[in-house]
Automatic annotation (TrEMBL), chain A:
The keyword Membrane does not apply. InterPro entries: CT_A_B (IPR003778), Cyclophilin-like_dom_sf (IPR029000), PxpC (IPR052708). Keywords: ATP-binding, Hydrolase, Nucleotide-binding. This is Carboxyltransferase domain-containing protein. PANTHER family: 5-OXOPROLINASE SUBUNIT C. Residues 25-315 form the Carboxyltransferase domain. Pfam families: CT_A_B. The keyword Nucleotide-binding applies. It comes from the Bacteria. It comes from Helicobacter gastrocanis.
Automatic annotation (TrEMBL), chain B:
InterPro entries: CT_C_D, Cyclophilin-like_dom_sf, PxpB. SUPFAM superfamilies: Cyclophilin-like (SSF50891), PH0987 N-terminal domain-like (SSF160467). Signal peptide: none annotated. SMART domains: AHS1 (SM00796). Keywords: ATP-binding, Hydrolase, Nucleotide-binding. It comes from the Bacteria. It holds the Pfam family CT_C_D. PANTHER family: 5-OXOPROLINASE SUBUNIT B. This is Allophanate hydrolase. Residues 3-240 form the Carboxyltransferase domain. One of its GO terms (molecular function) is hydrolase activity.
Length: 324, 298
């Protein structure tokens, strides 16, 4: 069996695949790569199936040593891979020699880089997925983020790496002010008209409290609530509801303060009112925002969300096909 | 009862069964719909999550158009109204150390997050959560409050937040429900297996982590066991299901410590009894019906 060793783990490096489904009713969130498109493309580059487990590295990348020769590719956040100290291209299948050390430059753009390894990270399947669920201590490597000294197994490669690099037009781009599209609903009726207006007018800033559970946004105006009777059991604060399930991507604002958009490792339910939900394809985009990224929220209809979903799926398909 | 349907983006559909909030009737309706929906095995529905007085599904709009998803759920609303409300469930006795040293140390560390130190508060700035809950609910002493908390059983009304965490709704009339505000600022830490209370709900924190419910005590009995070491985890890593009924029984610190040791050794077990539960019979005589079903634990 082939392995790689973690020389330094970075800030938060996790084993992920595309996620764990069918257990949300037990409080177990989907998990999985936050930027699924980048994850899929990284796997396509090394000839893996799209759901093959790889590494998600947040903000500060890991440094790894490979026992035997391996084929790897990094996508997502803009970073320069280095093999034994030599700079190599990203978005390209690379050969790491036996005993080779793979490291990465700091991220010049984006928040998460995805490392695919031909054959995948061969951790056990838990409830149908290899994604890490750190709160429950299951999945991934020992149910936690990687630490220095960890030695992880690599599976047997099944496909052929792509001889091409991913075209530059498909690399991550981030504007000075990014836009996130949401569908209003859930308990939006609790907010005053003015607060709803502010939500789509204010320019928010991603706070440092931004991880796989959720992203907190600063610099917006405080939310105000209509004078409505509280449902029984909710608690007195108008930002509370009778505890319910949370959609992945939904936005809440405890106490009317900074809004939080939930992500793939978020609590599956709780007692805060939700005002809108990020459309599914913009979840990938949010996962690439680093702290201090400026963001504007845009309200779209469900029809527009479904059109955007189709367009995004077509883009991922085109990216993967461009590597064949 | 007033069902309210709302899409959560393009892949979730959220249904409030009752806009008036929590009630056993609303919970039974949500549970009945989710059960039927599960049996239907609708292609494209990927998650079915019953909750306290609501439920939610996740769906794949590429397989199941959103209009169709809405139509299916609305038709189930018609079907369940007036359905039979007797369920077959489990009655579980669970030891609790109230006013324990672990949650006490934790809550004292988070006093600045608590109501007792909010601007303008006239409360004792060092009061405990259970003392606060006692005052909010008008009990003469903490002992009396604990008696009310432990005397009547609790329905598992939802599983979620984190893996295996149960929300609990006490089987007493609405006027007797214990109600406490949640922390104004959520904590970043809670001991595993803390018994919490927020709004009208109790909970058992399945793992150590953040939380906003007031802390009442702690149980030695795990509710999430990924290694499935204890006998009552044979079937699943998650112990409890919506509809299960829990009876808390206060224990002493030395009993608690002995149970914790048994948990570590893998020998700890719980008293679990099968029981039917009829919503109508309970509504007719809550106190008498509780006493009747609790006999199974005697």
């Amino acid at each position: 069996m082939n392995t790689f060793k973690v020389l330094s783990p970075g800030i938060a490096t996790f084993v992920e695949d595309l996620g764990r489904y069918g257990y949300y009713h037990l409080g177990i969130p989907p998990g999985g790569a936050l930027d699924q498109a980048s994850f899929i493309v990284a796997n396509a580059l090394v000839g893996n199936d799209k759901n093959t487990a790889g590494l998600e590295m947040a903000l500060m990348p890991a440094k790894l040593e490979f026992e035997k020769e391996a084929v790897v590719a990094v996508c997502g956040a803009e970073t320069t891979p280095k093999i034994n100290g030599v700079e190599m291209p990203s978005h390209t299948a690379l050969k790491v020699p036996a005993g080779g050390v793979l490291e990465f430059s700091y991220f010049k753009k984006g928040a998460r880089a995805y490392l695919a390894i031909a054959g995948g990270v061969d951790v056990p399947l838990v409830m149908g997925s290899r994604s890490t669920y750190p709160l429950g201590g299951i999945g991934g490597f020992k149910g936690r983020k990687l630490e220095a000294g960890d030695i992880l197994p690599i599976g047997t490669p099944t496909g052929k790496p792509s001889p091409k690099s991913l075209d530059k037009s498909y690399h991550l781009e981030l504007k000075e002010i990014e836009e996130l599209r949401v569908v209003l609903g859930l308990q939006d009726y609790k907010l005053t008209e003015q607060s709803l207006e502010n939500l789509f007018k204010d320019i928010f800033v991603v706070s440092t409290q931004a991880d796989r559970l959720g992203y907190r946004f600063k610099n917006g105006q405080k939310f105000n609530y209509k004078d409505l009777p509280q449902p029984f059991g909710a608690g007195a604060n108008p930002s509370n509801i009778t505890d319910a399930c949370y959609p992945v991507g939904s936005m809440q604002a405890p106490g009317g303060n900074e809004p939080i958009v939930l992500l793939r490792d978020a609590p599956s339910g709780g007692g805060f009112a939700m005002y809108c939900t990020l459309i599914s394809c913009d979840l990938d985009r949010l996962g690439q925002f680093a702290p201090n990224q400026q963001v504007r929220f845009k309200s779209v209809s469900l029809q527009e969300a479904l059109q955007a979903r189709k367009a995004y799926q077509a883009r991922i398909k085109a990216m993967v096909e461009s590597l064949a | 009862m007033g069902f309210r349907y709302s899409f959560g983006g393009d892949t979730f559909l959220f249904v409030e069964v009752s806009e008036e909030g929590m009630s056993l009737e609303a919970f039974f309706l949500a549970m009945a719909i989710c059960k039927k929906l599960r049996a239907m095995q609708v292609k494209g529905i990927t998650e079915i999550c019953p909750a306290n007085a609501s439920y939610m599904i996740a769906f794949d709009p590429d397989i199941l158009p959103h209009e169709k998803a809405l139509e299916i759920l609305k038709s189930l609303e018609q079907e369940v109204v007036g359905t039979q409300t007797t369920i077959q469930t489990r009655l579980i006795e669970m030891p609790v150390l109230y006013n324990d040293p672990y949650t006490h140390a934790c809550l004292m560390g988070f006093r600045n997050n608590h109501q007792c130190r909010e601007p303008g508060s006239t409360l004792d700035p060092n009061m405990t959560d259970i003392e606060y809950a006692r005052q909010m609910n008008g009990y003469a002493s903490v002992e009396e409050f604990i008696k009310a908390h432990a005397e009547s059983p609790w329905f598992v009304s939802m599983i979620g937040f984190v893996a295996g965490l149960p929300w609990l709704y006490q089987l007493v009339e609405r006027a007797k429900q214990i109600e406490v505000p949640k922390y104004p600022i959520a904590r970043i830490d809670t001991p595993a297996l803390t018994i919490g209370h927020g709004g009208c709900f109790g909970c058992i924190y399945a793992v150590r982590g953040g939380g906003g419910y007031q802390m009442m005590g702690i149980t030695p009995a795990p509710v999430w066991d990924p290694k499935q070491r204890l006998p009552y985890f044979k079937e699943s890593m998650v112990f409890l299901n919506p509809g299960d009924i829990i009876k808390f029984s206060p224990c002493t610190e030395s009993e608690y410590n002995a149970y914790v040791k048994q948990v570590e050794e893998g020998t700890f077990d719980l008293k679990i009894r099968q029981t039917p539960f009829s919503l109508q019979e309970w509504q007719a005589d809550p106190k008498g019906y509780n006493q009747e079903i609790l006999k199974a634990l005697a």
